Amino acid sequence: MAEDVRRGRGRPRDDGIDARVVAATLELLASQGFLGTTIQAISRRSKVHSSAIYRRWPTRIELIEEAVFPGLDTVSIRPTGDLRNDLRRFVRAYLKTLGSPAARAAIPELLGSYQAGGRTRSGEQWLGISARPQFQDILRAAPVGTVDSEIDPDDVFDMMLGAILAHLLVPPVSTRTRFVERSADLLLRLLRPVGSTEAVAEMGREAETVAGEPTR
Known about the structure:
Layout: H1 2-7, H2 15-36, H3 39-46, H4 50-56, H5 60-68, H6 83-98, H7 101-115, H8 123-127, H9 132-141, H10 153-169, H11 171-174, H12 179-191, H13 197-212
Helix pairs in contact: 2-3, 2-5, 2-7, 5-7, 6-9, 6-10, 6-12, 10-12
């Protein structure tokens, strides 16, 4: 229902216009930054009248969100059942999406807008521009017994998103090497059922490593 209201009633929505507007938004974010990406500038570059843009996206913030948070649709992260490899592919794809020039220009300003109380989307609308559903698909495709049923996948996703944003936006964190591999390994540890064979073996290896290290 909310989506119908946002898109408006009457003539069918022209996906070609949507694509031109989104492309213009991404180009402007990358070249002019967040402040230069106004509806008027987007209208000029896309050759779409501003009134048509506002019919599709009631605010500039919503348009920019939809442009920079595509839900990884274009990356096509399809689960294979190999949890480690799927997590690695997912982290790499999400890192690439959020690390694009347009996203880097938009994210800090969007965070400031949210802090100022500019949030207007419902939870359902957010899922349309989020990679959260793809992450849950990966967990559902994992072999039985490899993901703890007591773990809330949203909690794991939120921790992963925070780590990715820190890696992209915080200079000391961005210098850490092998981010994708390390992140996938940590996600696996979080997701494993307590007491599983792999989890016990992992803890045993860690205990041996600690025992063999000199005390400080």
